[in-house]
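Posting this for the archive.
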Amino acid sequence: MDILVKGRNISVTEALERYALEKVERVRRFFDDEKSVSRAEVELTHERNPSISECDVAETTLFINGTVLKAREASPDMYASIDLMSDKLERQVRRYRGRQIDRWHGQMKNNAPEAPQPFMVEEEGEIEDRIVRTKQFQMKPMSAGEAALQMELLDHDFYVFTSADTGSINVVYRRRDGNYGLIEPAR
């Protein structure tokens, strides 16, 4: 498995890189075939925003036979963030492998090949059960700048609005680096 460790706003020391590699390589034990996990990308980030108390972030993207698993954790200490991220990644891999094995055993019982299922398929009822609040509001047409101002006034991370220019539904959001992003439908 190829593991790439990179840093953003932090210099990745040899000890930090070795620690991250050691933690991410632990997921290998869940796979019999060495080629199952093709690569992993670990990104260690130090958030420069002083209002963020958990400023050290460890994020891993794991590529497994066409499936992508991601784990992201933050804490005040980078080593603690790597530990938390590693635990989360192991839980995800364990759940992924459990579903693979259950699917394989089901095929053996039925002796009929099963169509490949996408990862993390949930029943519609399960998703609806997790929706705990519904809001309705009027959306007056406004510019992206006005929407960003409304978002800041409400202290939200995103704001849905109707664009005054196009009349379409857009979303303005706060990025991790403190800037803003705009999502608009393709024309």
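Residues 105 and 111 are 10 Å apart (CA to CA). The two ends are 41 Å apart (CA to CA).
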